[in-house]
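Internal QA ticket QA-208
Title: Verify multi-chain structure generation after dependency bump
Assignee: T.L.

Test input:
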Amino acid sequence: MDCLARVEGEGALELRVADGRLESAELRIFEPPRFFEAFLRGRDYLETPDIVARICGICPIAYQMSAVHAIENAFGASVDGPLRALRRLVYCGEWIESHALHVVMLHAPDFLGFHDVVGLAQEYPDRVRDALALKKTGNAIIRLLGGREVHPVNVRPGGFYRVPDRADLEPLVPQLETARERAAGLVRWVATFPFPDMERDYEFVALRHPHEYPFNEGRLASNRGLDIDVSEYESEFEERQVPHSTALHSMLKRRGAYLTGPMARYALNFDRLPPAIQALAEEAGLAPVCRNPFKSIVVRATEIAYACEEALRIISGYAAPDMPAVPVTPRAATGFGCTEAPRGICWHRYDFDANGGIRTARIVPPTAQNQPSIEADLAAVAAGLVDEPDEVIRARCEQAIRNYDPCISCATHFLRLKVEHH
Amino acid sequence: MTAGAAAAATRRIIVTATGNPWRGDDAVGILVLRALADRLPKGAAVLFDGGCDVPSLVDAWAGFDTAICVDACASTGTPGRIRRIDLATQALPHGGNKGSSHAIGLAEAIAITRALSQAAPRVIVYAVEGAGFDLGAPVTEPVAAAAARVTECILAEVAALRSGA
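Actual output:
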């Protein structure tokens, strides 16, 4: 009996096999943002960050950032200077803690033959300690800038409710310097894993910024020519209902499935990484573009190292702003925001009334956008395993799904596998 | 005061909860923490809300003599049923969370602390069977009632630990 499993049945994979060939792979993942879209209607714009932070317990900052950018876009406000830097800094914290958790505690066991992280901790305790220490560092940043780690309360349209002095940030420096070394060690460690030999020709979609590796800002771009403002998302992307899932599948209207997340960011923004991080990636065997989804763990580890580096850079140049937030005046308008959650682009649209009340909300999380790609990967993976026992198929499919670190709203039971043989 | 009583009086106790307060009965641990915050004698125990961040418990437990953990568990047909699991004498099943790509469970967190040799010497788990975990749903009546009973149990447990009983 799974005594302490909290939620059941929120992810399921169905494979249909006929005559020794895979006919279809259908993945069902529950979508929490739909509930929040309805819940936001009629709420005041100031409540939005607090509400959307609860969509995901691991990546609240991503939802808050996309929301406040959308609000500022609607109301004609602009955040720059130290406030902009603080937003990048808190996002660094979220990437560090989310990626560290995923790389070591959730995904690494798959590559090393462990059932779970408990087995990994017995053989590689120092790596698990590294992950916990990195997570603690990321959480420290979020706690300082977000007010608390769980459901941060300090983010608001226009900036923050309270901003730190330089002296408040200084204690993070030694922690981040150590974290940077741990992260580099992590990259070198995961680079030694045995990777299934698989590549797919993805359309990568990510933010692309003129100067920096993207967190909060940029145009939506792809390796197949997409280059649009985030406000034009709905002109190029659509959500389609599929019969086998309550979750909508996001697609490019003209080309279908796409991939967002660390591999996409890396492929489209390698030239924006600092030279030291580019060198680290190359040392780990990564080319400027990586198309093996199982090597996403190396890309993710590289992004931890980058986030540590970026956090140190921001702190070294920081001077507290005069005000914690710029003025934001509501008006009847529609606003768009898109930021890079740890697992990919998180796009928000809000329609406001003249008083800043939310009339409608639309939230497209990265997991929903990756679902078609996940299914296509699973089809490719399972096609070579149809004659294997179900448990072998399940293990490799779960490993493949974990390439994407899909957000399932902290559900515990994840994958029910059904294989139909005809 | 005997040496044993003196040791008991200085015992470091932490009570932790995990759960999503917006997912129905998943909030039971947080309800218990809130109730304890109002009723525990000052300094009797540290309260820690792990929220959805279960790995944070691994560090939170470090340095304590006793960890009391409260969490919801999947229903086996008796919502509100409370199970007290003392890891000194009982095993806590884990591995049911293997499929999750996004989180680890309480059982895994406890197992990790043991693998890293940083577990509290004494760990007691209060698991409350939930009925519903839908987003936005309130805590169900049986689980709310169970939260009140668990609170009383923990108050008595902490008092006993402090007195060396």
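Spot checks passed. The beta strands of chain B are 13-18, 46-51, 66-73, 82-86, 122-129.
Status: verified.
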